[in-house]
Amino acid sequence: MGVAQLCPGVPRALPHCWGVGQAQMGVPRVPAPVTSFLSLAVTSEQIEHLHRRFKQLSQDQLTIRKENFDSIPDLEFNPIRGKIVHAFFDKRNLRQESDGLADEINFEDFLTIMSYFRPIEMNMDEEQLDRFRKEKLKFLFHMYDSDHDGKITLQEYRNVVEELLSGNPHLEKESARSIADGAMMEAASICGPDQVYEGITFEDFLKMWQGIDIETKMHVRFLNVDTIAHCY
Amino acid sequence: MGFAMRAHAQLSNLLLLSMVSCSAAAYGDEPSLGKRSLLHYEHGSNGVDSSQDMRLHVFTVDYDYVQIPYEVTLWILLASFAKIGFHIFHRLPRLMPESCILIAIGALVGAIIFVSHHKSPPVMNTSIYFLYLLPPIILEEGYFMPTRPFFENLGSILWWSVLGSLLNSFGIGLSLYGVCQIKAFGLTDLDLLQNLLFGSMISAVDPVAALVVFEEASVNEQLYMMIFGESLLNDGITVVLYNIFIAFTQMHRYEEIESIDIFAGFARFFVVGLGGVLFGIVFGFVSAFMTRFTHNVSSIEPLLVFMFSYLSYLSAETLYISGILAMTACAVTMKKYVEENVSQNSYTTIKYFMKMLSSISETLIFVFMGVSTVGKNHEWNWAFICFTLLFCLIWRTLSVFALFYISNKFRTYPFTIKDQLIISYSGLRGASSFSLAFLLPRNLFPRKNLFITATLVVIYFTVFIQGITIGPLVRYLDVKKTNKKESINEEIHVRLMDHLKAGIEDICGHWSHYQLRDKFKKFDNKYLKKILIREHQPKSSLVSLYKKMEIKLAIEMAESGMKIAKSSAPSLQSGRSQRAHRLSPAEVESMRDVLAHNLYQVRQRAPAYNRHNLPTNTSEKQAQEILIRREHSLRQSCRKGNSLPWGRPVNTTEVRYLSLPQGPRQPTRRKARHVTFTGNGSVSYSSS
Q1: Which residue does chain B place closest to A165, by CA atoms?
Q2: Pick from B28, B568, B526, B138: nearest CA to B362
Q3: Which of A112, A189, A209, A223 best tests the B interface by mutation, with the highest count of B CBs <10 A?
Q4: Does the complex come out with an ipTM higher than 0.85?
Q5: Per-residue model confidence as pLDDT tens digits over B131-146
Q6: Cβ–Cβ of A140/B511 closer than 8 Å?
C-alpha cells in the first residue's frame, strides 16, 4: 500500500482500543499500515476520537456521503464549504489511482484526509519534511483544480476567489474577478507568461510556494479529547 | 559618493556644533541678562527717577519669558540633528540602536547645563509625565501594532507578559530585600515595600531597540510578536503594580498590612487591567462610529482619532484604572475601522503625527534622563547597584525559561532554546523605568537618590552593552527567519487555508481559537462593520489590499507622469461590453509589468515597528525601475510591431477604483489630476 511507503520504520502496533471499537461496528480491521502511518503524530486516543466523530457524522453507518456533512452547523458559514467537502471525496486525495469523485468514504479514507493536517514533527529530517510539504501542497492544489485536469486555469482561480469573497454580500463579482486576474498575472510573472493561457501546473504551484512556510500554517491542533464541542 | 558622505557628515557636525554652542551661549548668558531686565523693572516700579529709566530702551532682552519653550525646542532640535547625523553614517545604525544616540545627547545636554550652573526648566513632574509625555508613546505603540500576529499568539503573549512582569518584579524585589538585610552593605533601612516597588519599577522593559534589530535581521514572526506584545503590555502592568505599591506605602505602616489588603491588591490588579481594556474598547468603537460621518470634514479626522484616544486615557485615569491599557485597546480597536473610513490624507497625517508626537516625548524623557545623570542627585552604593544589575539579568533569564517551558507545552510550534535566549537577552530597560524612579515621592522614599542611580546604571548597561551586542548575537545564533512575501497570491492562499482549517476543525468537532476568530469575523461583518464603516460596505482584507495596491500604482504613475494601459482596471467598469479576445504578447507583457510593479509596491504589512521612523518608502527607486521597465517594454512592442493599447487615441476615461461606489457612470469625470488612463474595454481570457 502506498501509505506504508511514506513512513518507513514506524512501529506497527495496533492500538488496543481500536480493536474494541471495530468489533462493535463490525467494520473490518484497518490494516496495520494505516495506523502506522498515522501513529507518528496521531495517538490512539485521537484515532478513537476521530472514530467517534466518524460514527456521529455517518449516523452509525459504515460510510459517509456528502449529505452527511450537512449536519455540521458551523460549516454552514464557511465560504469554501463546497470545496472542503469536495476534497474529502476527491479520489486524488484519497490516494486512489483513479480519478474523479468517490460517492462515499469509509473511516480509512477519512483518516487519510485528516492526515494531511498533521503538524510537523521536530525530529523530521529534510527528506521527510520535503515530502510532507509536497503532500500538503498537493492537497491545496487539488482544491484549486476543480476539473481534475492537473492545471489551475484562470477560470478555476476566479472561482476560488469568488467563493472566498462570497461571505461578503456587498462585494461585486467584478472585484473578485479582477483580483483573480491580478493573482494570475503575478503567478505568470513567477512561472512564465504561458501560464495565463494554459494554466498553472503543480510544478509551477510549487515554485510559487517556494519561499512561503506552508508547514507552519497548515495544521490542525489535536488537543485533548475532553475539550471537544459536539455538534449537537 | 564617499566625498558627498563626508561632506554631509561635516555639515551635520557643523550644525551640531553650532546648535550646541547656541544652547551653551543661551545657558551662559541667561542669568546676567535676566537679572538686568529684572533690575530695570524693579527700578521702574519704585518710581525712583533716574535718567536711565525714562529712556525708551531700543533693545531689550527678556529670556525668562521664553525660557521653558525655548529650551525644550532646542533639546528637540538637537536630538533631531543627532538623528540625522546618526543615519548619515551608514555604519552606525547597524552597530547600535538609536536609543543610544538619544541618551548620549541627553547626557551632553545635561553636562552643558551642569557646567553652566543653569537651573533646568521643570519639564518632568508626575502630572506632566503621566498626562503629557507618556500618552503619545503608548498611543503610537498601540496603533502600529500588527493585529493579526498579535491575536494569533495572544495566549502566549498574555501568559508571558503578565506572569513575566509579576515574576520579575517580585523576584527582584524579594532578592534585593534579602541583600538589604545584610548589615555590611548599609542598606537595612530599605524595607520590603520599598524593595518590591523598586523591583516593579526596574522590570519595566522597553525593547524597542531590540525590535529594530529583529526587524533588520528578519527574525520569525512569533519571536517578534512575543517581544512586541511584551513591550506593549509591560508598561501597563508595571504602572499598575507601581501604583498599587505606592498606595500600600502610603496607606499603612509596614507592620499593619493584613492579608485582606494583599487580596485587595490582587483583585485591584485584575480590575484595573481588565477595566482598562474594556474602557479602551468602548472608546474605540465610539470614535470609529464618529469617523463614519466625517465625510465632508475630513480635516478633523486626525483630531477625532487623537482626542478620543487621549480621552480614553484620561477617563480611565480618573477612575484609577489603567489608562495605558485603555489607550492601547482603544488604538487597536479603532484602527481597523478608522482606516477604512478616513481619507488617504488623513490616514497619512495620523501616521506621521503619531510618530512625531511619540518621538518628541521620548526625546524629552531621554534628555531629562541625561540631565539627571550629570546632576547632583546621586547616591552610589556598590552593593545595591551591582546586585540590582545581577538580579535583573538572572530573574529575566529564569522567568523566560520557566514560563516558556510551560507555555511550549500548549503551542504547536514551541520556542526553541535559541529563541528563549534571545528573548531573555532583549530585556532592555528604557525611559519608563527612569520616569517611574524619578517620580518617587521623596517623603516616602528617603533614599530616592539611590534608586535613581541604580535605575540609571541598569538603563545605561542594558541599552549600551546589550543593545550593541544583540545584533551580532541574533546573527550568530541564526534564528529562524521569516519569509514574508506580500502578494495577492499569498493573501488568497492564506485566506483559503484559514477557512480550510476552520472547516476541518468543524468536521473534527474541535474547538480551537481559529473558530473563535471565525466567529468574531462573522459578528464583525454582520453587525460591527455595518455600524462603524461608511456606506455599509464591508470590505475584505483581500479587497483592501488590492485597492491599496491600485491606489499606490496610480500615485506612482501620476508622479512619474507616464501613461500606461491599465488592463485590470477596465475590467471593473461594469456595463462595458465584454469583448473577449486573445491577448497579444504586448498586452501580456504590459499587464505583467503592471502587476510585477505591484509586487514590490504593496504597502508594508509585515511587522515593521520602529518608534523613530515609518517604514521607509523606497518609492524613488521603484519609480526609476518602473521607468526603465516601461521603456524596455515600449521598445520591445515597437520592435514587434504590434498595435499598442496605448497607441490608440487617448480618451480620458476615469479609473474606477474598487472603493468608489458604483454611482452613475460618468466616463468623462476626471479623477486624478494629471493622469489619463486609456481603457479599451475589458479584457477577458479564453481558457484553454
Answers
A1: B540
A2: B138
A3: A189
A4: no
A5: 888 899 888 888 888 8
A6: no
